[in-house]
Design a protein that fits this description.
This protein is an alpha/beta fold. It is built from 17 helices and 15 strands. The longest helix has 18 residues.
Length: 473
């Protein structure tokens, strides 16, 4: 039985294990976000793990030496002092060095383990193709916990199906690292050997189903023909979805607010998708009972929904951010801006306008630029042929020193630190300031008030009940 509803794998820990577990137990596909889970786990351990859930999951990790070292390095029984900075993990370069690689696998294991604990429902994990360096150990950690689905977008994950095949056998894997300036015939490769996690070597796991997230018919066709292993369906994401959007096809144009405009060329041919013979789900602007019905009438198995789940009680968002956004939605004053510059990736990024967040120019201007998480950095070859990593949101002089164009850094915002702030794990800086949040949402936020009907809070089960209600003709 295929799920009718796939809960979106949103942001950094917005779709965490509590939300995914609730959706999964209700018979739909709950999805945890796999982005930056190593930093999430490290910071939550430093905050004392007050409920003990993280330590319970860590104790179940099959490589006990890794589990013990993780607790030794990061767990603070009394929690971190309020103004004490979080201890940082090393930033990735060509792969993850030593313990960092092991900790990545552990962090993904923990999130999936907790999402699956105590029930038999299906759980997926969402990773971003463009964040390459953590991918291999992250996938294996999730598979050790029995993840049922892997979802990947923000790129073309052509190598991942074959990687899942090999990892399920406990075998070593490799994938190409995109490096600007590399010789196509002599690529830089990322490597991971499950045996590196401990004395028990590489353990066999079940092979999860793979769903690439795409925005074009051509990508679906390419994946079915050229992927290195089997794919089990597609998620077709439109430009109204939250987070990163694919840029419009053709010559760029903008509306009077400076947002990129989309047209007929950006629509996906659902008939052609259906002819590929694989199930698919529609995402972006589909979060209504009517949206579900129309998707299924077009041949889809169902829909993926993010925005409605992002602001429910089980979401990982800070409570004050949820409450502020729900209040704006009830008032009819919520505003989502598709910012063409905010993301270091260069892709349009949807931003919710909120006071004291990086959506506001004064808050953005006050922030001292720093790049110390580095998930969105890209690899380049410098003039001497050495591998370097740069991000347009890092200090401009550092970016230019790595042959970056100063103009490309204008208006870029540090999503890595902002998304950590969104979930209450903001870094404290030496001057006592804390990182500001930057909230993202799909365009469905503009009609969230229709669903709320004056409520100031709701749960994930309320979302499912709403979406699955019969539609009268």
């Amino acid at each position: 039985m295929l799920p009718e509803i796939i809960q979106g794998g949103m942001g950094v820990a917005v779709s965490g294990w509590r939300l995914a577990s609730t959706v999964s137990q209700a018979g739909q596909l709950g999805v945890v976000s796999g982005t930056a889970l190593d930093s999430v786990l490290a910071r939550r351990l430093q905050d004392g793990d007050p409920g003990g859930e993280l330590r319970r999951a860590i104790a179940a990790f099959p490589y006990s030496e890794v589990a013990e070292e993780a607790l030794d390095r990061f767990f603070l029984p009394e929690g971190r002092a309020p103004n004490r900075p979080y201890r940082m993990l090393p930033m990735f370069r060509n792969g993850a060095p030593g313990f960092a690689e092991q900790f990545l696998a552990l962090a993904n294991f923990v999130e999936v383990y907790l999402a699956k604990e105590g029930h038999t429902g299906l759980v997926g994990i969402n990773h971003l193709t463009k964040i390459q360096a953590p991918t291999l150990p992250s996938l294996y950690g999730a598979m050790l916990a029995g993840v049922d689905y892997v979802l990947m977008g923000a790129g073309i994950p052509m190598e991942v199906p074959g990687i899942l095949d090999r990892l399920s056998e406990g075998k070593d894997v490799s994938m190409r690292l995109d490096v600007s300036g590399d010789d196509r015939d002599n690529p830089t490769m990322l490597h991971f050997d499950p045996a590196s996690l401990g004395a028990t070597g590489g353990l066999k796991t079940s092979r999860p189903r793979f769903l690439p997230i795409i925005s074009a018919t051509s990508l679906a066709t390419a994946m079915t023909r050229r992927a290195t292993g089997s794919i089990e369906g597609f998620i077709i994401e439109g430009w109204t979805a939250g987070g990163h959007n694919a840029p419009p096809r053709g010559k760029a144009s903008f509306n009077d607010r400076g947002e990129p405009t989309y047209g007929p060329r950006d629509a996906v041919d659902l008939k052609a998708i259906a002819e590929l013979g694989l199930p698919f789900w529609l995402a972006g602007g589909q979060g209504t009972p009517q949206g579900l019905r129309e998707a299924q009438e077009a041949g889809a198995a169902g829909i993926q929904v993010g925005t409605l789940f992002a602001f429910c009680d089980e979401s990982g968002l800070r409570q004050d951010l949820r409450e502020q956004t729900i209040s704006l939605a009830n008032d009819g004053t919520a505003d989502v801006y598709t910012d063409p510059k905010a993301s270091p990736t260069g892709f349009p990024f949807k931003v919710v306008r909120l006071e004291d967040s990086l959506s506001e120019e004064d808050t953005y201007a006050e922030r001292h630029r720093v790049c110390d998480l580095g998930y969105l950095r890209v690899a380049v070859r410098d003039s001497d042929g050495r591998l370097a990593f740069r991000c347009p949101a890092e200090p401009q002089d550092q970016y230019v020193a790595k042959a970056g164009d100063a103009e490309d850094s204008e208006g870029r915002k540090c999503l890595c630190n902002a998304l950590m702030a969104n979930i209450g794990l903001a870094q404290v800086r030496k001057d006592g300031t804390t990182e500001a949040p930057l909230l993202t949402s799909g365009d469905d936020l503009l009609t969230l008030g229709d669903f709320l009907k004056g409520r100031d809070r709701y749960g994930a089960l309320d979302v499912l009940e709403y979406l699955l209600q019969p539609v009268t003709v």
